[in-house]
Amino acid sequence: xxxxxxPHTLILLFSMILIALxxxxxxxxxxxxxxxxxxxxxxxxxxxxxxxxxxxxxxPLSVFTAIPKGLGEAQDIIMFLFIIxxxxxxxxxxxAIDALLGFLLDFLGQRSWLLIGGGIFIFSAGSxxxxxxxxxxxxxxILLALAIGLGFDAVTAIGILCIGYxxxxxxxxxxxxxxxxxxxxxxxxxxxxxxxxxxxxxVLMAVGIHHVWKYAQKVKADPKSSLVADVEPDPQWxxxxxxxxxxxxxxxxxxxxxAIAVIVYGLKFWHWYVVEMGGVFFGLAVVLTFLARLNMxxxxxxxxxxxxxxxTTALLIGFARAILIIxxxxxxxxxxxxxxxxxxQSAGAQLAAVGMLFFQSLLNLFIPSGSGQxxxxxxxxxxxxxxxxxxxxxxxxxxxxxxGLTNILxxxxxxxxxxxxxxxxxxxRWLRFIFPFMVKAWIVCSVALxxxxxxxxx
Length: 458
Fold this sequence. Notes:
Elements: H1 9-26, E1 30-31, E2 34-36, E3 42-44, E4 50-51, H2 62-73, H3 75-94, H4 96-109, H5 112-130, H6 140-149, H7 154-170, H8 179-185, H9 194-221, H10 247-269, H11 274-291, H12 296-308, H13 311-329, H14 333-347, H15 349-363, H16 370-388, H17 392-405, H18 414-422, H19 427-455
Antiparallel strand pairs: 1-4, 2-3
Helix pairs in contact: 1-13, 2-13, 3-11, 3-12, 3-13, 4-5, 4-6, 4-10, 5-7, 5-9, 6-7, 7-9, 7-17, 9-19, 10-11, 13-16, 14-16, 15-16, 15-17, 15-19, 16-17, 17-19
């Protein structure tokens, strides 16, 4: 019997566009009254939903025209993605990030407790701040060599990497690909609420470190207890000997840190957003070209390669935005919000927030793109939060937890499957290792959301 194969995310999103069009003909068209609150944000007014009897249904051909409309309406985010992708391409070409990670992992590898704790910290920090994920793939062989050399196994090595980047995305303090996009869609001040997310990041890191450490010690005491005891390690898994971290690499990394600090400050105090952030990242790419003495033509090629790597993400954002356009034109968004809000309203604000978390976690199976998921769900979750007494900042938090943490669980995440394939770890065995951590993480996140509602996090 042929194995089921999950379709490409673009196909799933186009299917959702078709479903959205069908919903505009099935659901009653409706509308809430809206008001502008003290923060200048428009929000729905509870108890004002009414069915529209004379509204027009969308043209069936809008299933095609909504896609270019979606790309057009999301153009500011898409252009920012291309610029930041190009800038990271130039940064990679300097070799500084590779040298830094290689040096740190080599240093940590001589101290097993630091390899696990420090490794998870390093990978989560990169994902929490600048959204790193695919960039970690080259370090899979290094981690495997270090972990196996210390008496652990491949699952331990990949646990360090994946739990690190999953925690980083799930509790992202500053991530332009998820948090900032979701906050923009939800009309929440960009980069706001960092303090709470920082505390959550530390707690989830501690849970992740304990989970990996406990498993690693079990394997070290009894190698036969390894989930991959019957899998032969690849002889190519060895630490490279050229992980020299020079003063020039240090200066480059320092400039990146300064650029991120400037962006965070600008977002918080100067009301910056994607245009200004894009300008800083492009300026950083130009400075790095000269500082690293890169050939200008080669730097330009690396910029284009880096931008091209985010083309799929850009298309997913446009397709996701098209779903919203169909629902808006069909005037059924408020109908959906009203329908979902009814059971959640009776559950109370805290349970409603937890319900949002598990809804986002489930949806990530079908839309593993964090940016795309933000455009699909936040237009519904934000006004839903207004109705059930959940601040939009909490709705954003539920989104990033559901999206980020399940990246290391769902088989539709290409990065995860690629990493597991490199490490020769069958998915079902990875599931046995990671699912207990996910249960712990979901419990922590559920408590965090309940606390966020209770303290009025915004």
